[in-house]
Each structure stands twice: as C-alpha cells, then as structure tokens.
TrEMBL record:
Transmembrane segments: none annotated. One of its GO terms (biological process) is epigenetic regulation of gene expression. The gene is mug. The keyword Phosphoprotein does not apply. This is G/U mismatch-specific DNA glycosylase. Residues 18-179 form the Uracil-DNA glycosylase-like domain.
Length: 183
C-alpha cells in the first residue's frame, strides 16, 4: 500500500472519487463520504482498518478478498459503490446536516437512474441524516426509491466498535441472501 504524507492526504480534501456503478446492479453499496485515503488513492474504502472489503468477502458477496484497487471487479458480481456525500473529508463529522440532505436527494436521483435492486447504505447515522429518518435501524427499510429496496448496513469503519467483522459479515450476508436467494 502506498504511504502518504500528512500533506498529501490533506491535499486530497474535497476531492471527488468516481463511483463504481452500472445500470441494474444487484446491490449498490453507499458509503458516507470518501475519506482522505480514499481520495488520495481513488479507491473506495481504502483506509487501512476499514473492514468493508473483508466483510464483503466474509459475507459471500465476493468469492475472494478484493483490494480497494480492484474495486472495478465489483461490477462483474453485480455490485457497485457510491457515497451519500461526494466530497472527501478527514472525518464524517465534518459534514453538515444540509450536506447530508442534499446528498440524499442526489443519491435518490442516481438510484432512480441506475435502478439497482438494492441500495445498501453503510452507516445508519448517515442514512438517518440523508433521508430524515431518525428511527431507522440496521436492516431492510420500508422506504423504496422507485423500484429499489433499501437496506442499512453497519458502518465498516474501524472506529465502529459496536460491530465486529463477524457480526458485520452476518448482516451483509442477510442482504446477500435476500438480494440473491439462489446464491
């Protein structure tokens, strides 16, 4: 993995990271916003300690553990990645309420265009803020965006101590089984 200086990471602030998307995905995973490591590398969930890639594999969504640099392979599995808020920050708490709401509006429009079977938002707090749903919990949601169902997953950040990789993988696997009952 490339090592970045603090100055190089800071230079990645506010950068945009391209989505990994296609029409008609099985599941479109949606992070909160890119961190500085993600922005510096251009690869989603690139920060060491983020459990997204291991959990995606442990849950059975991918047949092997992918590296962030292999994110393009997700499309071959019917999976993609986007974010609620596009701009990169050091921490999600740098985002304001209006930024989340606007991100939710833009995300809903993107989902309407791409029409994935499932939108999987990783982070219940981000989902609540983006869609003004204070009572949302991890799991399938009542809300639909067009024909797309919504599932809220635990945030895979290493800072989320409430969930282990194993318990996260169990929740991701619940979505996988629901999204593709023949798998």
């Amino acid at each position: 993995m490339t090592r970045f200086t603090p100055a190089e990471l800071e230079a990645a602030r506010d950068r945009l990271v391209p989505d990994v998307v296609a029409d008609g995905l099985r599941a479109l995973f949606c992070g909160i916003n890119p961190g500085l490591m993600t922005a510096a590398t251009g690869h989603h969930f690139a920060r060491p300690g983020n459990r997204f890639w291991p959990v995606l594999h442990l849950s059975g969504f991918t047949p092997r553990l992918l590296k962030p640099s292999e994110q393009g392979e997700l499309l071959s599995y019917g999976l993609g990645i986007t974010n609620v808020v596009a701009r990169a920050t050091a921490r999600a708490d740098e985002l304001g309420a209006e930024e989340y709401r606007e991100g939710g509006r833009l995300l809903a429009a993107k989902v309407g265009r791409l029409r994935p079977a499932w939108l999987a938002v990783v982070g219940v707090t981000a989902y609540r803020a983006a869609f003004d749903d204070r009572k949302a919990q991890v799991g399938p949601q009542e809300r639909m965006i067009g024909d797309t169902r919504v599932w809220v997953l635990p945030n895979p950040s290493g800072l989320n101590a409430h969930w282990t990789a194993r318990t996260m993988a169990e929740e991701f696997a619940r979505l996988r089984v629901t999204a593709d009952p023949l798998s």
